[in-house]
Amino acid sequence: MRKLRKSKISAVFLSVLIGLSLGCSRRSSDETLAQDIQKKVAADPETDNSQVAVTAKDGKVTLSGKVSTPAAQQKIEEIARAESGVAGVDDQTTIVPEAMAATPNAAAPLPPVEKPKPEPIVLPAGTVLTVKTQQALSSKSSQAGQTFLATLALPLSVDGRSAIPAGSTASGTVVTAKAKGKVKGEGQLDLALTSITAGGHTYPIKTGVLSSTVKGKGKRTAATTGGGAAGGALIGGIAGGGKGAAIGAGVGAAAGFIGGTFTGNKQIEIPAESALSFTLAQPLTLPPPGQ
Predict the structure, then answer these.
(1) Is the C-alpha dihedral spanning 39, 41, 47, 53 positive or negative?
(2) Is the pTM value of this prediction over 0.70?
(3) Is 100 in a helix, a strand, or coil?
């Protein structure tokens, strides 16, 4: 009886030992299986940049992680199924192309293409600015240093690019104003533009001086000084002495002169809305449109 008990105990103990041995052997076999598959995935050129983890339990292999293409996903599964001792494959990998950008073998992203910056607009010296005066000017009533306002009558552009639209505000100054005496002495009126507004910004400018004199029995002379040539542009509406100056065909010439009607003692009079042409003596640089 005692021998029978000992025999049963020995059998149970032996079964436990065999089970433990088989469990350890199977665990060791699963680890080896997973390692072998992982190595083959890393060595294959089609799958070497994949971020895949391989685990195995009782011969069943589980694949997880990220791959860059469907072809790489299929290749990894084929490698796992071809491994000796694999009882099945559970493929849980996902296709995420962006994830590959962080790997050493992934192609570096291209830098963004910078658009060329727009160039500023430069109105060269010699550009003609034709304006309409907003108030009357006179050799008798105007004073040297007096400011007058005007609006641009014709738009300005450079190489097809709009620079300053018509209607923009310009400012000028009376350089000289000298009344004609009844007996002797000449009347003189000199004007120049000093600034122009474009795109909400006011820019200082320098133009030639438009100079007109009257002496003797109403004989007039006109010239442009400080930039440009003498004579040239038509001053509309002045010859008739009226307002609402019409801009004549000569307005676009290289320079302008101050025409005028004469009062009883031969003064130079420029009514409001008269058209005058000034010539830039220095270039004017404007920012690109929209800036």
Answers:
(1) negative
(2) no
(3) helix
Domain co-membership, 167 together with 266: yes
How large is the average pLDDT for residues 112-124? Answer: 86
| 104 lies in some domain | no
Please tell me whether residues 148 and 44 are part of one structural domain: no
Q: Are residues 152 and 269 in the same domain?
A: yes
Higher pLDDT, 29 or 256: 29
Same domain as 143, residue 27: no
Residue 180: what pLDDT? 76
Q: Are 18 and 75 in contact (CB under 8 A)?
A: no
Tens of pLDDT along 43-55? 888 888 888 888 8
Note whether 152 and 238 are same-domain residues: yes
- Buried b / exposed e along 149-181 (16+ C-beta atoms within 10 A): ebebbbebeeeeeebbeeebebbbbbbbbbbbe
Residue closest to 210 by CA, chosen among 139, 284, 285, 286 = 139
Does one domain contain both 153 and 266? yes
Q: What is the mean pLDDT of the chain?
A: 74
d(CA 232, CA 283): 21
Domain that residue 250 falls in: 121-286
* Boundary-marking domain end, from 46, 63, 98: 98
Q: Indicate the number of domains in the chain.
A: 2
Tally of CB atoms within 10 A around 128: 20
Task: Residue count of the chain, please give it.
Answer: 291
Contact between 198 and 168 under an 8 Å Cβ cutoff? The reply is yes
Q: Please tell me whether residues 133 and 80 are part of one structural domain.
A: no
For 143, the token pair is: 């004073």
Question: Could you give the 3-state DSSP secondary structure of residue 249?
Answer: helix
pLDDT for residue 10? 54
CA 165 to the chain's CA centroid:
21
